[in-house]
Write a structure and sequence with these properties.
The chain is about 40% helix and about 25% strand. With about 70 residues, it is an alpha+beta fold.
Length: about 70
């Protein structure tokens, strides 16, 4: 395991439980400034995760950024 470099911003750590087949798994996520911006509209971490997943899906379909 490598040490995490220091970041110039506050970090919010999130844990999400996800069913995977017959067993439940946990995913750990680090939320940075964009997480705060997204959750200003809707305070739910699940909403922020859905926005992120949607953006990744769009990026995968489009093939490049922006």
């Amino acid at each position: 395991m490598r040490p995490i470099p220091s970041l110039p911003t506050k970090v919010k750590l999130l844990s999400f439980e996800r069913p995977l087949g017959q067993k439940q798994t946990n995913e750990l996520w680090a939320g940075l400034d964009n997480f705060y911006v997204i959750t200003r509209y809707n305070h739910s971490p699940l909403y922020a995760m859905a926005v992120y997943q949607l953006s990744q899906s769009i990026l995968n379909k489009k093939g490049n950024f922006p």
